[in-house]
Amino acid sequence: MSARLTALAAAVACLAAGCATSAPGPGSADGAPRLRVEVVAEIPHDTAAFTQGLELADGVLYEGTGQEGRSELRATDPVTGAVRSRAALPPDLFGEGITVVGDRIWQLTWQEGVAIERDRASLAERRRVRYEGEGWGLCHDVAGGRLVMSDGSDVLTFRDPDTFAELGDVRVRADSGPVSKLNELECVDGTVYANVWQTDQIVRVDPETGEVTGVADLSGLLPPQQRVNTDVLNGIAAVPGTDEFLVTGKLWPKLFRVRFATDSD
């Protein structure tokens, strides 16, 4: 069991016993427009991949995986799911979100406060940069000239894509209040899509205001019989030149190519 799952189990036990806990539950995106999920295709996915980050660039699907002693960065075939190359993290680092920036890839770690800059072609490590707090999701907001990072709260932090220095932040809100547990991120045309941990929701966020402008419910995407021995929905990658995304979950046997549509589409 991963450290995060162990922490979750402890929190559940604590609640059952009636003790106090400071861990916030998943935020609600009530009141936001609903996005209908249309499945376009299904693609094989390695069931050993504890997916933390997913990004498609120039025909290569990059995937960051987690768990202590098993974290990697992978370059995979987006059509077959086959792994083309991989780079393992040191066993003391728990891998998290990733994003492509030109010829580089940034990879977060969970609680170690380390961002790893890698060479995109070889996946080799170039350098490490320190940051405060936890690392969960990461994406490159090309339109805004910045990185967007999540830490499991309702805050998205903006960072310099070259130095990783903090540039500011925004709190994510829906009509019902804060939306927390923001996890894997994808930046698309000035908009941020975020998995909400422990739910089957992906929220669409305006990074300038923090407003949730849409929510997609992916419940049932993976049939119940295939959810055995899997973990939560996590992983979203825009398909360049289309309005489609690749989505998956931790230890899932499939990637799904989907389109998010509104009732007016």
From TrEMBL:
Signal in keyword set: yes
Keywords on record: Signal, Transferase
A molecular function GO annotation: glutaminyl-peptide cyclotransferase activity
Domain of life: Bacteria
Keyword Signal: yes
Cross-referenced InterPro entries: QCT, Quino_amine_DH_bsu, WD40/YVTN_repeat-like_dom_sf
Signal peptide: 1-22
Pfam families reported for this sequence: Glu_cyclase_2
Protein name: Glutaminyl-peptide cyclotransferase
Natural source organism: Actinokineospora iranica
